[in-house]
Amino acid sequence: MDDLKQKYLGQIADAGDEAVLEAIRLSAVGKKGEVALKMRELGKMTPEERQVAGPALNALKDEINSALAAKKAALADTALDARLREEWLDVTLPARSRRQGTIHPISQVTEEVTAIFAEMGFSVAEGPRIDTDWYNFDALNIPGHHPARAEMDTFYMHRAEGDNRPPHVLRTHTSPVQIRSMETMGAPMRIICPGGVYRADYDQTHTPMFHQVEGLAIDQDISMANLKWVLEEFVKAFFEVDGVDLRFRASHFPFTEPSAEVDIRCSWEGGKLNVGEGDDWLEILGSGMVHPKVLKAGGIDPESWQGFAFGMGIDRIAMLKYGIPDLRAFFDSDLRWLRHYGFASLDQPTLHGGLSR
Ligand code: DAH
């Protein structure tokens, strides 16, 4: 019995982990362990022998069990100590610097535009980027063989043979959201729709995905004068200047009548753009009075309602305001570029707090 005790207490002391300890437990005091086997031998002993051997075996069993429990606790302590040493963290270290991540200029400008139009009572509407050619073209008075379809370098979604759902496109502009909003909101309404649009085009000022913001105001007595005032207010607020000259140039869009493109007065000095002064003009948007056919397509009666609409390139006005020379850089995800042109993440653009600070 002494041999057993020496053997097992020695093994327990040397055990390096819980798995080894468990193996020792099974071979010592498990159901088929050595102590159990010895207990079975008690039956063959004389009552006198049994009176000595029985308690001694029980004591041995207890001793081994408590050595196992003590070793188990010690192993757990050692493991916890090791973990604490490994996962040590100095909570007194200074926090990471504020500009770890930045807001992308397109997100920033979208927020700025939204803040300005919100102040004028416009809410934000959204539509799908994959839309039917009806919403993207037909409903906007651009029928099947209208040249505007070809001009837009449209991405058409693949259609399997026998698929007779309407053809889908990656929307080429945000104008389809006009129709969807008319359908769901009805008149009167005042919305802007910012979002991504797609055209197959790629150079310094064109990328296959870019961003627009659509504007739409419908009421009973809306006129071009309202359009002009709203756009002037917007441009002043956006470029953070007191006065700007806008030039309304007669133009043509299938979905507006009359239509105008709008330029702002600016100057280029040493490659830097100054908005509001100088002898140059820069086109920033298309606009006009919503065509009666477009109102009708959206389920609004053109006899009772009229409205103005405009569409502006978000990337474009971001380039202008923040002096970004190449559109493609917006989508390169170059960290140095993002740190340079990005905005602090906690500065929300507001009219009273400052748009871009
Ligand atoms: N959808 C036009 C484009 O992408 C922009 C546009 C022009 C939108 C005139 C309008 C508008 O709402 O009235 O080129």
Overall tally of domains: 2
Proportion of beta-strand residues: 15-25%
What percent of the residues sit in helical stretches (DSSP H or I)?
40-55%
The largest pleated sheet is described as: 8 strands, mixed
CATH superfamily of the largest domain: Bira Bifunctional Protein, Domain 2
Radius of gyration: 39 Å
Quaternary structure of the protein: single chain
Q: Which ligands accompany this protein? A: 3,4-dihydroxyphenylalanine
What does this structure look like?
- It is a single chain.
- Strands 1, 4, 5, 6, 7, 8, 9 and 10 form an eight-stranded mixed sheet that branches.
- Helices cover 41% and strands 21% of the residues.
- The protein folds into two domains: 2-86; 106-344, Bira Bifunctional Protein, Domain 2 (BirA Bifunctional Protein, domain 2, 2-Layer Sandwich), CATH 3.30.930.10.
- With 357 residues, it is α+β, with helices and mostly antiparallel strands.
- It starts with a helix and ends in a 16-residue tail after the last helix.
- It is elongated and about 120 Å long.
- The site of 3,4-dihydroxyphenylalanine has 11 residues, from strand 9 and strand 10.
- 3,4-dihydroxyphenylalanine is lined by residues 173, 175, 214, 253, 256, 286-288, 309-311.
